[in-house]
Structures are given as C-alpha cells and as structure tokens.
Amino acid sequence: MNVLDLFSGIGGFSLGLERAGMQTVAFCEIDPYCRRVLQRHWPGVPIWPDIRSLRATDVPAVDLICGGFPCQPFSSAARGRNRSDRDLWPEMRRIISECRPAWIICENVVDLDRLAIRQVVADLEGIGYEIAPPFEIPACAVGHDHKRSRLWIVGHTNRNGQPSRALNGQTSGMFGYRPVAGNDRAQDGIPTRLDRLRALGNAVVPQIPEIIGRAIMGNQP
To answer: Which residues are the active-site residues?
Structure first.
C-alpha cells in the first residue's frame, strides 16, 4: 500500500506504517529541520514543503493518506485565541478529496474540541468515507514511560464515492480502544537543541500507527 504522509514531522507515521508493510511515496512537511531528517532516512522520497500548494497531480497514486494536522488551533491552550491561521484541516480534506485513497488516518490532541471532531468526521463522511468512532491511545500503552495521549480517526472508502464497510472484524476491537493506566513521567535525556525538542514534541509514537497499519493490512483482500 502506497502512503502519502502529510504534516510528516520526523517520520513517526511512516516508520510505523512501513513496519506494517506499507511504503511511503511522498511526504509534506514545512519545517526545514524535519525535512532534513526525512531526507536522511527516506532518501529519494519526494518532500513537498507546504500542503497549501500540494496537488494530487504532484504525487503518485496512493492507497492511504495519514497526518496529524496542526493541533494548535484545537488544543486547550489555544482556547479564546484566533485559531484560523493554523487551521490546516481544510487543506488535508482537500488533498484527501483529490487523491481518493482507500484509507485515511488522522491524529490529533485528545483536547480536540468536540465541534472540531464532528467537523472532521462530517467532512470525511461527506466525501464518501466510513469513519470509525474516534479512539484514544496513549504512548504508555505501547511501552513508553510517558502518557502522550492522542486521538486517532480512521476512515475507509471503496473509492467510488460510497462508504465502505471494512471497519469491522480485525479492526473493530482496536478502534474501540481506550487508554490504560500508565506512568506519566516525561522521558529523560532528550537533547536540548530547540529544533530537536520541537520535532520530538510533535512526533507521533511509531508503534501506534504500526498497530493501526497492521489492522488495515489485515483487511486487505
């Protein structure tokens, strides 16, 4: 399965999905430091610098689009502030609509407003995707010593504009996942360079997209 990785950061999504048997064919990442990391670990895979200028014709045919669209507009810390300048969900929705992948994986903070969650789900259903109930998985559930809970939204379509009914069977138990108790300590030993701190702070834990990716691969014909 070919993957388009949006808001790629340092490649946590792709690392996990490739462990599940998929292949990343393009990235989109605006941060120069993160792009250098991606170039080093995925040499030859094209990287677009800005989702606002990315078009479906720029990338190969893809089976899955993933991305953690910027969370600043939706986090609890942003309440009461102007959020429009960082709201790039409409751009991710546009790319999904143009590329029509079979699968979608979205990630965001657990403080994502309920209104924003409903908007994301409604937008995806409006372009023909069946959406599993959004679920939460913390990093401590996959062996890390910090919580880092994240919200995950997974969708599927049969590509002819009608929702697919593939979100069942092997995936149903996982998509109903809820957090387990875990250690909420922050990890020690992270280098102090600002660019590395920012990149690590925004990264997804690769083991989680790997789990989701393996469930998706188990639903393929």
So the answer is: 71
pLDDT of residue 160: 65
Helix (H/G/I), strand (E/B), else coil: 133: coil
For residue 152 the two structure tokens come to 């995950």
**Distance of alpha carbon 146 from alpha carbon 201, whole angstroms:** 12
Our measurement of the distance from residue 144's CA atom to the centroid of its chain's CA atoms, rounded to an integer in Å, reads 19
Q: How far apart are CA 101 and CA 89, in angstroms?
A: 17
CA angle, 87 then 22 then 54, to 5°: 35
**Closest by alpha carbon to 52, among 8, 90, 5?**
90
Which range of residues forms the domain containing residue 76?
2-217
> How far apart (Å, rounded) are the C-alpha atoms in residues 85 and 201?
21
DSSP 8-class letter at 141: G
What's the rounded Cα separation, in Å, for the pair 79 and 70? 15
Count of domains forming the chain: 1
Q: Which has the higher per-residue pLDDT, 123 or 113?
A: 123
pTM of the entire predicted model: 0.78
**Residues facing 214 on adjacent strands:** none
The most distant pair of C-alpha atoms in the chain lies apart, rounded to whole Å, by 49
Write down the pLDDT at residue 39. Answer: 96
Give the CATH number for residue 73: 3.40.50.150
| Percentage of the residues of the chain whose pLDDT score is greater than 90 | 44
For residues 160 and 43, give the distance between their C-alpha atoms in angstroms, rounded to a whole number.
Answer: 34
